Amino acid sequence: QTADDAGVTAKVKAALLAESGVDGTKINVDTFNGRVTLKGEVPNQGQIDKAMQVTKGIEGVKEVDNRLSVSAS
Description:
The chain has helices at 2-18, 45-56, and strands at 27-32, 35-42, 63-70. By secondary structure, the chain is α+β, with helices and mostly antiparallel strands.
């Protein structure tokens, strides 16, 4: 299961980095038993929504725990 989780994490991270309109460098991705946790601060709510959409579309993702927040600056 650990190898699967590592693969899911890598796929999600790559997808977020490739997605235009999402600053994937500011998003931390962790996976445990297919449950992906997204953490970090992004510039706006639109990026959170897009990151959630992208993550849910990745094969192997069973659930997404969104802990992203909009940065204050």
